[in-house]
Amino acid sequence: MLKPILIHPDPRLKKPAALVTDLSDELRTLAEDMLETMYDAPGIGLAAPQIGLSKRLIVLDCVKDDSAAPRPLAMFNPEVIASSDDTSVYEEGCLSIPEVYAEVTRPAEVEVRWMNLKGEEEREVFTGLWATCVQHEIDHLDGKLFIDYLKPMKRQMITRKMVKLKRERAREQA
């Protein structure tokens, strides 16, 4: 089931999310709903706080090649346990900050540990777009947005643009 995505500024996007302590069928269904929402948006990652839920859950699929099989991942309580000194710069966007993109520098390679849909621990080293995406989504769980990496003036301009967008959308729905 598609979920509405919060638009910045929203206080729920700035709050650290709660650990998932018990993996229920309800949470597994939530992960499926989040993947459906992400694909529909369309995006390559989505964090539970972006749909208003304070849970440490992210979903992602960075396969861009239409001829390649999708690789949807759902991660409960993901954490970066190692990162490279090498960095990479990607032009990032966010489903909670529509139509805004900016270059962000992050570690080029990260090792992440998380709990999968079966409740088992997994670890993987991510590089390239996958590394950027997983770090971006984990940031959401800590109440951090990609615009927080930008200079204050640029961040304020983007926030004002989003306030205006939210007003316009509210008028359209009234």
Structural features, described:
With 174 residues, this protein is an alpha+beta fold. It has one domain: Peptide Deformylase (Alpha-Beta Complex). Helices cover 30% and strands 29% of the residues. The protein contains three helices and seven strands, in the order H-E-E-E-E-E-E-E-H-H. The chain has a five-stranded antiparallel beta sheet with strand order 1-2-3-6-7. It has a two-stranded antiparallel ribbon with strand order 4-5. The relative contact order is 0.18.
Key phrases:
alpha+beta; Peptide Deformylase; five-stranded antiparallel sheet; two-stranded antiparallel sheet
Briefly summarize what is shown.
With 174 residues, this protein is an alpha+beta fold. The protein has one domain (11-173): Peptide deformylase (Peptide Deformylase). Helices cover 30% and strands 29% of the residues.
Instruction: Domain count, please report it.
Output: 1
Distance between the termini: 24 Å
Rg of Cα set = 16 Å
Strand content: 25-35%
Number of strands: 7
Look up the CATH topology. Answer: Peptide Deformylase
- What is the CATH architecture assignment? Alpha-Beta Complex
Stretches with pLDDT under 50, minimum 5 residues = none
Average predicted confidence as pLDDT: 96
Most strands sheet: 5 strands, antiparallel
Q: What's the CATH superfamily, by name?
A: Peptide deformylase
- By oligomeric state, this entry counts as single chain
Percent helix = 25-40%
